[in-house]
Amino acid sequence: MTERVESLDYNRFDISPEHGFLPDTEPLMSFGTDAHPHLQSLDKLGDGLPSLIENDQLRSAVENLEAPSPDVFDELTERELMRVYSVTGFLANAYVHKPNEPSATTIPTGVAVPLYESTKRLGRTPVLSYDAYVLHNWTLTDTDRAMTPPNVDTITNFFEPRDEQWFIAIHVAIESAAGPAIAAISDAQQGIIEDDLTRVTHALQTIEDALHDITAVLDRMPEHNDPEQYGQGFRPYLKSLTSVKYEGVTELNGPQSYRGASGAQSSLFQALDAALGIDHGDNPLVNHLHVLRGDMPPAHRAFIEAVEEGPNLHDYAANSDDSLRNAYNDCIDRMVTFRDHHIDIVETYLTKPLDEQKGTGGTPYGRYLGSFTDDTQNCRLSSSAE
Fold this sequence. Notes:
three-stranded mixed beta sheet; two-stranded antiparallel sheet; Methane Monooxygenase Hydroxylase, Chain G, domain 1; mainly alpha
């Protein structure tokens, strides 16, 4: 019997066959009352962040926070380090990006040191990125129900109104709904290796179903997220950090600049593009997305690279019978639909109200999102009769 594709072993890449790039276990909501005093202080600041921002108390609270010895972080589990990373990432962005005032040029020691120490151990960039803002920032209202937007709540947020919570919940639900598609990538590539058309077809059908589901989730964004609340309420806190000094972090020499949290840092569509053999050529958006891989969890970034190195679904389907071509084309059609709907969302929340051409991660989407849709459409296969 042919062995399973070793490079796509999900344990190795920290991927859940059920929830994709989300952790199977709910992220940590608190360090607990027995934790180090600094960690308890982070809990307090994280839980009260919207109020601290609203009452203009955030900067003074951060400035009064003392950093513990780096040894404290050596004793933490990965879940605890992720909570340090997420909370301090929120605090750093909130400190730097104070509305209607110049951005701060320094992050105080009490936040800068734990942010750096946690991300160093996790292999992350020391700034609030998509994984800390979305992938590890959720809890379920009812653990017996599905991970749909109404059942997802946030652990930390900048903004008290529901809009930000809903924005994050939509992204969490999309990642969860995509889980079966991510799992099917391995089945598809293994099926190609074994020349098992049934297995490959089934995998493509699973990917198609998941793409249908995530499009339906995306379409729910306007239900509780007003474009003005998004643009003026919480989006400003997600912008990049530019020329900011991390006080007390000697390893970071001088001011640092890092990209803001962005959906473009999700591994989901880069993985699906790689699996389906969708080539977007060479343009500023493609180049930027490759740069954004540096902000992904290292294991997820490695997964995308492993998929790229594996068997090509497009080429295999092109040389197979019409039933497999049709299954492949169904996936392409679903991907086109998602990308069209995503363009509508971008226009609703960014282009029309804010007249912006770049995302919070610096993504130069502009006209290139349309080209991504065209590239996807161009991957459709003709039937053998044509």
